[in-house]
Write a structure and sequence with these properties.
By secondary structure, the chain is of the alpha+beta class. Helix content is 40%, strand content 31%. The longest helix has 22 residues.
């Protein structure tokens, strides 16, 4: 896929929504496209996370505790939180029956970008705070 198409896809990821066009383009240059065979386990619940994945083509099945929870298609993504905190995955993701093509950014490439462009970290913090506030509003038990 073209770099412009990948940049547009990254711009639609809520975590990256506060990034400048320049930073999105840099992020697009730092990753690579990966093909996954049908049924291939891409990430495993409980294991360390080393990359973010943006679905370009095909589909992915997301399982938690061995149960299918949702399916992702083009434009879907997974691994964005583990990309930042390096904690174990909260779900298993497998390529769907037609296979899967993802754009993948490793944690070390992402960290390098954060070190060189600290304003990217600021934009991510704002988005993460929004996620927390939204989760608290839904739960209505959180306090600010």
């Amino acid at each position: 896929m073209s770099a412009a198409t990948i940049t547009e896809g990254l711009a639609r990821v809520d975590l990256f929504s506060g990034l400048s066009r320049r930073d999105l383009e840099r992020l697009a240059r730092s990753g690579r496209e990966v093909d996954h065979e049908p049924g291939m386990e891409i990430v495993t619940q409980g294991r360390d996370g080393v990359a973010f994945h943006l679905v370009l083509e095909g589909s992915a099945d997301v399982e938690i505790g061995g149960r299918l929870r949702r399916q992702l298609g083009a434009g879907g993504y997974f691994g964005e939180i583990s990309l930042i905190d390096g904690k174990p995955r909260t779900a298993t993701v497998r390529a769907g029956s037609d296979g899967l093509r993802t754009f993948t950014v490793t944690a070390w490439e992402f960290r390098s970008m954060l070190e060189e462009r600290p304003q990217v970290a600021q934009a991510l913090l704002v988005t993460l705070c929004t996620r927390i506030r939204d989760a608290q509003a839904t739960d209505s038990s959180g306090a600010d």
